[in-house]
Design goal:
Bound molecules: pyridoxal-5'-phosphate
Strand content: 15-25%
Shape: globular
CATH architecture of the largest domain: 3-Layer(aba) Sandwich
Helix content: 25-40%
Largest sheet: 7 strands, mixed
Number of strands: 16
Number of helices: 14
Radius of gyration: 22 Å
Order of helices and strands: EEEHHHEHEHEHEEEHEHEEHHHHEEHEEH
CATH class of the largest domain: Alpha Beta
Oligomer: single chain
CATH topology of the largest domain: Aspartate Aminotransferase, domain 2
């Protein structure tokens, strides 16, 4: 076995979203607890982005560890086509109750949860014998890296090599907003006008990230815009798919962003915080109205989709344990926005800070710097490096700097995150 040092690249690994010719070697992590990652080289780092937005309660949470351990000693995996088990049933009952969507379909991650939602939406129309092919998505969207998820996401550098393989999707502007934005209403009106025209074509489904587009640049929209979107989608008879892979489980200051925005989608994709960020799992929730169109003696009505690890009992057990934690202390996510606010307010006065936005556990702003906006803006890596030296792990999206910490982060740690950002801004 090859042993790589703390700052070297392993010869057998191919890391995600990384250009090896241009990036720093990864750091080796030996363990983690709460909001901290402990590097092999000794120093702790605050995980200010919850390890790609998954770690909800903090790392190595004892309740989540116990749930995995106990379940692993009881039933670690079973084929879910001919069998069921208590952790899956309990999870389905609980998620049905809090999403208002009665049926749960399991998959493995956020991308597959989106793929399943898209497949269900398309087949729902086919099963009813109605030809509806158009899918509508929003500019700037990110829904994952599998082909269907890529197709509905913004076409960009990441999807370019596959462009000819991606199905066509109609696009609508995303009227992102920020503090002291006095032009938002005009942008919303324009987006709604485009959506309205687009929906004149018979539409199978409209997919969106409620309240917050994540990878597209932490772009926040107002609830009233989403309510208007929902009205148009309903009037057109199309299905509404909420991709809550990032925004679910308290991230946006309520159980789900849809709930905060007053939406009742037909389908919902969930992952990331589903297991508290402990194990990979995705689910697609569907209304009973959707589900019922898949039932009948004709085999072609069936949703012929499944994954080897469907409803993995370890994932279900830890998802139930994560829900227990959220239910026991909802104030942790309901009140998180208030913890960010004074820090972001102070930061907003910095000349390098533009377009502040805050929702739930997410605080973000744009760097006022030269260069084109987007993932490759070089200011992001500079901020990342300086913050890392100050003990804080950030991963800006180009010129967009954000914090999305785990719920357990202490006030002192949060202060350290903002101090590290302030230091980076002063050095830009
Ligand atoms: C809104 C949204 N949908 C889907 C995905 C894809 O999830 P995964 O990376 O688990 O495939 C992501 C990932 O960041 C996401 O933010």
């Amino acid at each position: 076995m090859t042993s790589a040092g703390p700052h070297t690249r392993h010869p057998n690994l191919w890391p995600p979203f990384t250009q090896l010719a241009r990036s720093e070697p990864p750091r080796r992590v030996s363990r983690a607890d709460g909001a901290l990652l402990h590097l092999e080289s000794g120093e702790p780092l605050i995980d200010a982005i919850s390890s790609w937005w998954v770690t909800l309660h903090g790392h190595a949470h004892p309740d989540l560890a116990a749930a995995v351990h106990d379940q692993a000693r009881t039933l670690e995996q079973v084929i879910f086509a001919d069998f069921t088990h208590a952790p899956a049933e309990r999870l389905a009952e609980r998620l049905s109750a809090i999403t208002g969507l009665q049926r749960l379909f399991f998959s493995d991650n956020g991308s597959t949860a989106v793929e399943v939602a898209l497949k269900i939406a398309c087949q729902w129309w086919a099963n009813r014998g109605e030809a509806r092919h158009q899918i509508v998505a929003f500019d700037g969207a990110y829904h994952g890296d599998t082909f269907g998820a890529m197709a509905v996401g913004e076409r960009n550098l990441f999807s370019a090599p596959f462009e000819d393989k991606l199905f066509p999707v109609a696009r609508v502007p995303w009227p992102a907003t920020w503090w002291d934005d006095d032009a938002v209403e005009a942008r919303e009106a324009e987006a709604l006008a485009v959506l309205s025209r687009t929906l004149e074509t018979p539409t199978a489904a409209v997919i969106l990230e409620p309240l917050l587009q994540g990878a597209g640049g932490m772009a926040v929209v107002r609830p009233q815009f989403l309510k208007a979107v929902q009205r148009l989608v309903h009037d057109a008879g199309a299905l509404l798919i909420a991709d809550e892979v990032l925004t679910g489980f308290g991230r946006c200051g309520d159980w789900f962003a849809s709930r905060r925005a007053g939406l009742q989608p037909d389908l919902m994709a969930l992952s990331k915080g589903l297991t508290g960020g402990c194990l990979p799992m995705g689910v697609t929730m569907a209304s009973e109205r959707i589900f019922s169109a898949f039932i009948g003696s004709d085999p072609s009505l069936t949703l012929w989709h499944g994954h080897s690890f469907t409803a993995n009992p370890l994932g279900c057990a830890v998802a139930n344990a994560s829900l227990d934690l959220l239910e026991a202390e909802p104030q942790r996510f309901l009140g998180f926005e208030a913890r960010h606010r004074p820090h972001l307010q102070a930061l907003s006065r910095h000349p390098r800070v533009d377009h502040c936005r805050l929702i739930g556990t997410l605080a973000a702003f744009d760097l006022a710097v030269e260069g084109t906006a987007g993932y490759l803006n070089p200011a992001g890596p500079t901020v990342k490096r300086i913050a890392m030296e100050a003990g804080v792990f950030l991963r800006p999206l180009g010129q967009v700097v954000y914090l999305l910490p785990p719920l357990c982060i202490t006030d002192a740690q949060l202060e350290q995150c903002y101090a590290a950002i302030g230091k980076a801004l002063d050095q830009l």
